[in-house]
UniProtKB/TrEMBL annotation:
Natural source organism: Cinclus mexicanus (American dipper)
Gene: Itpripl1_7
Name the UniProt record assigns to this protein: IPIL1 protein
Amino acid sequence: SWSIFEDQILYQLLVFLQPPSRHSFRLELFCGTHLPERCSNIRVVLECSCWRTTGDIPCFVHPSKDSETAQRSPLLQTLCTGSYLDVEEVACWVQNSVQTAWQHSPQRQHWQLTVLPSSHSCRLLLSGPSDMQLCAVLVFAVEQGSP
């Protein structure tokens, strides 16, 4: 959605998160009655890749013949708390990625990017040569029933 307030245009964008290969997201029911409203109820499930033709890609679930333990998932190490997707970690990761990408953007010569504080979304403010500002709010979601 979008709206205009005096000298600011606000865009709200819904960003659907997709699990990387060999992972899946599972929405867990809260008290068995309704879907969760927060990302903390999204379990990251590691999938076995032993029977797939994956070349040198290790299975996260089962240890390899050369190793005593299963490989660690980068997703679980960086964006999760335990086995659950951590929306604050996701927001921080996206904010840092946007700031890094902005450094390589030709628009940075004419526009200033400010990442606004937010622990559950990514809020970006673009200020340019005119008095008009653009504010984008990226809200993260997972589709129910997605693989």
